[in-house]
Design brief:
There is one protein chain. It is built from 24 helices and 12 strands. The protein is of the alpha/beta class. The protein has 4 domains: about 130 residues, Rossmann fold (3-Layer(aba) Sandwich); about 150 residues, 2-Layer Sandwich (Alpha-Beta Plaits); about 90 residues, no CATH class; about 100 residues, Orthogonal Bundle (Arc Repressor Mutant, subunit A). The strands form 3 sheets. It has a 5-stranded parallel sheet with strand order 2-1-3-6-7, sandwiched between helices. Strands 9-10-8-11-12 form a 5-stranded mixed sheet, sandwiched between helices. Strands 4-5 form a two-stranded antiparallel ribbon. Helix 2 packs parallel to helix 3 and helix 13 packs antiparallel against helix 14. InterPro entries: CheY-like_superfamily, Homeodomain-like_sf, HTH_AraC, Sig_transdc_resp-reg_receiver.
Length: about 500
C-alpha cells in the first residue's frame, strides 16, 4: 500500500513514519509533505492508496486540500488527524469521504486499526474493480446472466460511459480449427484496431467454445456505424495477416442486452461464407438482398461419378467432384441446399463402394456427412472429403512411386506461372479445392521438396538469369523475381548461392 503523510509537526511526522513501518513493513511511505501545497504535489506524483492528513497544515487547511482532491475525482482513502474534536470538523471530513478521524496525540493502537481498516477496504475495492470490468460485464451479458437493472445501468454509465440498454455493434472473427494456433495473433490484430481509433470504444472477448473472437463496439458516435470501416479496412487486413481461411460476421444491436440472441443468429449466418467467399463481411441485411436461385441437382454428374467408381476410374471420379464443387460455388444457391446436395452426392458414391466398406464404416461415413452439414467454409468441406474417401476406399490415395499426382502437377504448373507474383500455398490450395496443410504434405511427399523451397528455387534461378543476361539494377531484378525488398533478395541469394548478387554478376561477366 502506498501512503502519503501531510503533517507539519516534525515529531508527529517521525512517530507516524515509525509506526507505519511497524504496522506494515511492506508499506511504501512517501517523503513527508509539510503543508497542503506539498501534499497536493506529492499526491499527484505518488497516486497513493492512503493519505494521512492533518486538518491544520502550514499554508492551507487540510480539509480544503481534501475537498480539492474530491472535486478532481481522486478516490484515495483518507485518514484525518486533528487536535480539534469539534463536530463540524468531523462532519466535514465524513462528508468528504474520510475513512476515519483521529484526535492528536494519536494512539498507536487506534492508528493501527484505522490503517488496517483502510487497507482492507482498498483490497476489497480492487477485487471488485477486477470483477466489475467491461469484459466481465459483457461476458455475463453474453452468457445470459444479466437482466435489465437500473442500478447496474447507472453503475456502468458512471464508470464506463455506457449502459446495457445502449446500442452496440458486434464483429465476429471465426478461426475454425486454427483457433488455438491463430488466437493470439488474431487477438493482437484486433487490439491494434481498438488502440488506433477514437471513433468508438470496444472490447475483445475470446469465445473458445465457438473458435471465435468477438469484438463488441459500444459508446461510438451516435448513428455512425463502423460496418464500412471494418468491411473495407479491417477484414482485408485480417485476411492478409492470418492467411488461413477466416469468416467475418457483423451485426448491429438496439441494446447490448440482446447480445446472446445476436450471437446465436451470427453463428447460423456463418454458413453464408460458402456463397460469399473469402474476404466477405457477412451481415444479415446484405444476405436478405441476395437473389437466390433454386438449386439444380446435377443428376447426370452423380451418374458419371457412380459409373467412375464401378470402372475404377479414380481420375474421372475426382473430376466429377470438381465439377460438383464448381456447380455449387458458381451459382447463388442457399448454403443449406449446397451442403444437402454434397451429402446426397456422397451417399450415392459411398453406396457404390459398399462392397469394400469395413464393418463400422457406415457410422464413420454418417459422422463425416454430419460434419459437412455443419460446415461453414469450403476448407472444412474439403478436409472432410479427404476423410470420407479414406473411409470408403483405403487405397484411394495410393499413387505409383514414379508418378506425381494430378493434384501436385497442377500445383507445380501454378507455381511456374505465378511464382514471381507472390502466390501463396493457401491460394494454390484454394484453387485446387484442398486444404493448405494437405497440399503441403502431398507436395513434400511426392516431390521431395517443400512448396516454399520450390518457390525460392525458381526465384533464385530467375535472379541468376537476369544477372547474367541483363544490366538491370537489383531493385528491378528483385521486383521481376517476385521479391518486394532487394535487401531481402540479396540475403536469400547469398544463403542459397554462397555469394551476393553483385559478386555473381562480376563472376559471370
Amino acid at each position: 500500500m502506498k501512503i502519503v503523510i501531510v503533517e507539519a509537526d516534525p515529531l508527529i511526522q517521525e512517530e507516524l513514519t515509525e509506526a507505519l513501518h511497524k504496522i506494515g513493513p511492506d508499506y511504501e511511505v512517501a517523503p513527508i509533505a509539510k503543508n497542503a501545497r506539498e501534499g497536493y504535489d506529492m499526491i499527484c506524483r505518488w497516486l497513493p492508496d492512503l493519505v494521512i492528513l492533518d486538518t491544520q497544515t502550514q499554508r492551507g487547511d487540510g480539509l480544503t486540500l481534501l475537498r480539492k482532491l474530491r472535486r478532481e475525482r481522486n478516490t484515495c482513502k483518507v485518514l484525518v488527524l486533528s487536535e480539534c474534536p469539534r463536530f463540524e470538523y468531523i462532519k466535514q471530513a465524513m462528508e468528504l469521504d474520510a475513512g476515519n478521524y483521529l484526535l492528536k496525540p494519536v494512539k498507536i493502537p487506534e492508528l493501527k486499526r484505522a490503517v488496517q481498516k483502510a487497507e482492507k477496504a482498498i483490497e476489497t475495492e480492487q477485487g471488485l474493480e477486477k470483477v466489475f470490468s467491461v469484459p466481465n460485464i459483457l461476458l455475463s451479458c453474453l452468457n445470459g446472466q444479466l437482466i435489465p437493472d437500473k442500478i447496474l445501468d447507472r453503475m456502468t454509465m458512471e464508470k464506463f460511459g455506457f449502459s446495457l440498454e445502449n446500442p452496440a455493434e458486434i464483429f465476429v472473427l471465426w478461426l475454425g480449427n486454427k483457433y488455438e494456433e491463430k488466437n493470439k495473433e488474431a487477438r493482437k490484430l484486433l487490439m491494434d484496431v481498438k488502440s488506433h481509433t477514437v471513433k468508438f470504444e470496444s472490447c475483445v472477448l475470446e469465445a473458445d467454445a465457438w473458435d471465435a473472437l468477438l469484438m463488441i463496439l459500444y459508446h461510438g458516435s451516435e448513428g455512425m456505424s463502423q460496418y464500412s470501416y471494418f468491411k473495407n479496412s479491417v477484414v482485408p487486413m485480417l485476411c492478409d495477416n492470418l492467411k488461413e481461411p477466416v469468416i467475418c460476421v457483423w451485426s448491429s444491436l438496439e441494446r447490448i442486452l440482446d447480445l446472446p440472441v445476436a450471437i446465436r443468429e451470427m453463428q447460423e449466418e456463418r454458413e453464408w461464407n460458402l456463397l460469399l467467399g473469402k474476404g466477405a463481411l457477412i451481415r444479415k441485411e446484405d444476405i436478405e438482398k441476395l437473389e437466390i436461385v433454386p438449386f439444380k441437382y446435377p443428376t447426370e454428374l452423380e451418374y458419371e461419378a457412380c459409373k467412375a467408381v464401378k470402372q475404377g476410374n479414380r481420375e474421372l471420379l475426382i473430376n466429377c467432384y470438381k465439377s460438383l464443387f464448381s456447380h455449387c460455388r458458381e451459382n447463388r444457391y442457399l448454403p443449406g441446399e449446397i451442403k444437402a446436395a454434397i451429402i446426397r452426392f456422397n451417399w450415392s458414391v459411398a453406396n457404390c463402394y459398399r462392397s469394400i466398406w469395413e464393418i463400422n464404416a457406415e457410422l464413420q461415413i454418417q459422422k463425416q456427412l454430419q460434419a459437412i452439414s455443419e460446415a461453414v467454409s469450403w476448407s472444412q468441406i474439403t478436409d472432410t472429403m479427404e476423410i470420407f474417401f479414406e473411409i470408403i476406399d483405403p487405397n484411394f490415395k495410393e499413387e505409383e512411386n514414379i508418378h506425381v499426382s494430378k493434384l501436385v502437377q497442377r500445383a507445380q504448373h501454378m507455381i511456374q506461372q505465378y511464382y514471381d507474383q507472390g502466390i501463396t500455398l493457401e491460394e494454390v490450395a484454394d484453387k485446387l479445392f484442398v486444404s493448405g496443410e494437405y497440399l503441403s504434405t502431398q507436395f513434400k511427399k511426392q516431390t521431395g521438396t517443400t512448396f516454399s523451397e520450390t518457390i525460392r528455387e525458381l526465384r533464385i534461378e530467375k535472379v541468376k538469369s537476369l544477372l547474367r543476361d541483363t544490366h538491370l539494377k537489383l531493385g528491378q531484378i528483385s521486383e521481376l523475381a517476385g521479391y518486394s525488398d532487394p535487401k531481402y533478395m540479396s540475403r536469400v541469394f547469398k544463403e542459397t548461392v554462397g555469394m551476393l548478387p553483385s559478386e555473381f554478376r562480376k563472376l559471370k561477366y
